[in-house]
């Protein structure tokens, strides 16, 4: 099965949960990450029971507060540390 995680295709041998994908992808600070699957935000309490399907698009988002706004950083856009102001 193939999914897209942070803009990159990832091949998986079997269906995995969102929680398992965080481990597989070695996501830093998983306790602070927000996971979006196919444009839907997955509640943290559902990480272990939400299973990914072939073709799913997954983004790992970090919300940062401070200053005059809140920034959302997508892992796929951290190459040049670009933020999306929400």
Automatic annotation (TrEMBL):
Pfam families: ThiS. Coiled coil: none annotated. This is Thiamine biosynthesis protein ThiS. It comes from the Bacteria.
